[in-house]
Write a structure and sequence with these properties.
Length: about 800
């Protein structure tokens, strides 16, 4: 009953505008469908089939904060239109991992809606407050400071853009690996109403309703509401609960005002509530003696016993509002203001051991909020084009989590983090056309990051959690391990990140470019800092930990060529890149022991891993063989290696770089897709069928860094678990059959993903030092879904 009431409350709030639209429209929809002219081809190297009139679509993106053809952008960018996303029935952006070069997008371990993103070897897997992403996630140019809730179902989008390589000049904060942009569509000038229904195996039932209407000549209103539901791929073999299920409600409302032809204002608000069951892992190792419990037989099955936090079952709520104002001063000059506020709250019961006994588990509570303001000035002259801006953001990231472990009668170790950040930046990026064929791009960004952290760690007796997690009567066991307020943990990092690029059109069809750029991700404090384990708060080691870790820095050079031949019927993109990566921030946890040698807690092991070198190759191509047949292909190669990673081994330091691997970075990735389209009327209505087949491949993926013997006993003990979580290379086959009416008002599709039902690991926990605990999480099994999309 609780979940039903909450979903109805969200539906009432988010869909009220849709209800008003229905009441006002009456039966007038039939002749009032607006064309989706904004939706273009899917990518520079993955586009929809050519139309019968040979009119190859041109792809317009805003990768450089101004609208331009994607083939003119001097950098590696992939764009997927909303129309193609709907046509292929991609459920969320993790599916782009199969088709975008050197990109890994996945659900974080133990979650449904927290996003882990890696591009060209750079990212961040741990979502704890204090850790920041290496890939920027944006919603309409609004930076999402936290990964919680960033993985949402795809709806109401004009396109998604994936920018690879450092984006420090234009996007700044934490975009040293790249950026992923959700771009929502503007409202149509005429009344619209769309309905999309999806049914699939595992009891999938989805519904998305979208509507918009002009209130007057200058004001439009629109709303979208969606509900996404699916049974679990597995279940808890002890209590019957669903595992890997989906229960999500989402809504978005926007108002668009155009008081003059030169001024555009949009006010938008959105909210998503994920009421899915806690995603629990499959334990890969035997349970403890004397029972030595065997792993669950089903890949998606579990024996977990933890399902609540603060008396609340798993839930992630994400919401935000934004105000966009764009004013065109003259045909070459415009200004933009972006004001935004976002927040999220997560109840996350994480059962590390995936057993029915409270051996090693972590009830967790996260919340965050952010306020941001950005001003942009854009100039588009014949010789000079560019953008300059100011950016300010204030954020708070907060978490409380207990680690419950069954040792010495049971203990609860609370970790409390309260992290405040302020950042401001000034940036400019300009291109100058020296000749019709040769151009120069110069850019730079100055960033100042200020961070304050409150960190508290305390052990309590028993397995009933700490006071912050609901047990007011908890009894403290000894003094706090860490007790530091925000006055004790404060740092400011400043950096200028430049960019220099050259473009040369060998011919009108071949665009050669080279870009050198730098990126920067601010320093941070270890949110699991345990000063008791490092000799007390004033020891030399503890004082070093209290200073935090240094900022990550990258310097990258890229050389590429973009070609469009035979009137656009053959498009190819190729890029090679080299990245110098310094002060790589590696989080982790190590066990602590009492005098008798028993595990009595854990300590954070955040460190700067020294230096790394990354080099790679990316190829994309699309060929419109005929007006009906198109072939898309992608291949990427990356060689990412640590050159220096110094760790303590007794009284000395050793370089363990040769024993490590980059996580979430397959060396080889490839995809080939064939699409054939032919006209066919259905029930007297003209239209066309589209048959698609896609085969993708990923090379071996490591979930953690330590892969071979280091000579350091504490690290070598983790290797068996690390190798258990590594996923060998695998291939996935997807296919779809879609019929679209000629007027694009009706679309019906049958879609299959992972048709060979491949089981492959996407994440996991290696706590082999904690009660021999290794648990894994897997990608989706074979899914089949039918979709019906109607535009009234």
């Amino acid at each position: 009953m609780r979940r039903t009431e909450k979903k109805l409350m969200l539906l009432n709030r988010s869909a009220i505008s849709t209800a008003v639209l229905l009441a006002l429209y009456g039966g007038s929809f039939g002749a009032a469908h607006a064309q989706e002219g904004a939706d273009t081809a899917t990518t520079t190297a993955a586009a929809t089939p050519a139309a019968a009139n040979d009119n190859i679509n041109q792809v317009v993106v805003t990768a450089r904060r101004r609208a331009e053809l994607i083939q003119d952008v001097p950098g590696a960018v992939t764009a997927i239109s909303g129309a193609e996303l709907e046509k292929s029935a991609i459920p969320d952006i993790t599916a782009l991992t199969d088709t975008v070069p050197n990109t890994t997008l996945k659900a974080s371990r133990g979650t449904n809606t927290t996003l882990t993103a890696f591009i060209r070897g750079i990212g961040q897997q741990d979502p704890v407050a204090g850790f920041e992403q290496g890939v920027g996630i944006y919603l309409d140019d609004i930076y999402l400071a936290r990964p919680q809730g960033a993985l949402t179902d795809i709806y109401d989008l004009e396109r998604i853009e994936v920018l690879r390589g450092p984006q420090g000049t234009l996007y700044g904060r934490n975009t040293i690996g790249g950026a992923v942009k959700y771009v929502t569509r503007k409202l149509a000038p005429k009344p619209t109403l769309d309905a999309k229904v999806t049914f699939g195996n595992y009891g999938e039932k989805d519904l998305v309703l979208k509507g918009s209407m002009p209130i007057s000549d200058i004001l439009r209103i629109g709303a979208t509401v969606g509900t996404f539901n699916r049974d679990g791929f597995g279940h808890n073999i002890l209590n019957g609960r669903q595992n890997y299920n989906k229960d999500v409600m989402a809504g978005r409302v926007s108002l668009e005002l155009t008081p003059t032809p030169d001024l555009f204002i949009r006010l938008a608000t959105d909210k998503t509530v994920d009421d899915s069951e806690a995603r629990q892992g499959q334990r890969l190792t035997l349970g403890p003696a004397p029972g030595n419990i065997q792993p669950a037989s089903g890949t998606y099955d579990t024996r977990s016993n933890l399902y609540t936090v603060l008396g609340h079952e798993q839930q992630v709520t994400t919401e935000g509002s934004s105000l966009l104002a764009e004013y065109t001063i003259d045909p070459t000059l415009s200004v933009k203001s972006i004001t935004a506020y976002r927040k999220s709250k997560s109840y996350a019961p994480i059962d590390f051991d995936s057993l029915e006994v409270p051996l090693w588990e972590a009830p967790s509570f996260y919340k965050d909020n952010q306020t941001s303001q950005e001003f942009q000035l854009t100039y588009t002259g014949q010789k000079v084009q560019g953008v300059a801006g100011l950016f300010y953001m204030k954020t708070n990231a907060y978490n409380d989590f207990d680690v419950l472990y069954n040792a010495a009668g049971g203990l609860s170790l609370l970790t409390h983090d309260d992290i405040d950040s302020k950042t401001w930046a000034a940036y400019a990026d300009a291109s100058y056309n020296v000749t019709d064929a040769f151009s120069v791009t110069v850019g730079g960004r100055y960033t100042e990051d200020e961070r304050r952290a409150e960190i508290f760690k305390q052990t309590y007796l028993g397995l009933n959690s700490s006071p912050r997690l609901g047990n007011a009567g908890a009894v403290a066991f000894g003094a706090p391990n860490t007790n530091l307020g925000k006055d004790a943990l404060h740092r400011t990092d400043k950096k200028f990140t430049p960019k220099l690029g050259f473009g040369y059109k060998l011919t009108p069809e071949h665009n050669l470019y080279t870009t050198w750029s730098k990126g920067f991700k601010g320093g941070m404090f270890d949110p699991r800092m345990d000063l008791a384990a490092t000799g007390g708060p004033t020891s030399t080691v503890s004082l070093a930990k209290r200073a935090g870790v240094a900022p990550e820095e990258v310097s990258s050079i890229e050389l590429g060529v973009k070609s469009s031949m035979n009137g656009g019927r053959l498009q190819t993109n190729a890029a090679v890149f080299y990245t110098d990566y310094k002060n790589v921030q590696i989080p982790g946890s190590i066990p602590t022991f009492d005098a008798a040698g028993n595990v009595n807690g854990f300590a954070g092991s955040l460190t700067n891993a020294g230096k790394a070198k990354i080099k790679g190759l990316e190829l994309e191509a699309v060929a419109y063989v005929t007006n009906q047949l198109s072939v898309n292909a992608m291949y990427s190669y990356i060689d990412a290696k640590y050159n220096e990673w110094m760790v303590a081994n007794g009284a000395s330091l050793v370089n363990i770089a040769g024993s490590t691997e980059f996580q979430n970075t397959p060396k080889n990735s490839a995809n080939i897709a064939v699409n054939y389209e032919w006209p066919m009327a259905v029930m007297g209505r003209s239209g066309s069928f589209s048959l698609s087949n896609s085969l993708s491949y990923k090379g071996k993926v490591y979930q953690t860094e330590i892969a071979r013997s280091t000579g350091v006993a504490s690290l070598d003990a983790t290797i068996p678990g690390n190798l258990m979580l590594a996923q060998d290379g695998y291939a996935l086959w997807d296919a779809g059959l879609v019929w679209t009416s000629s007027d694009r008002k009706i679309q019906v599709g049958l879609h299959g993903r992972n048709l060979t039902d491949k089981r492959y690991k996407t994440a996991g926990y290696n706590f082999s030092g904690f009660f021999n605990t290794v648990t894994a999480f897997y990608g989706d099994p074979r899914t089949v879904r039918a979709t019906v999309n109607v535009k009234f």
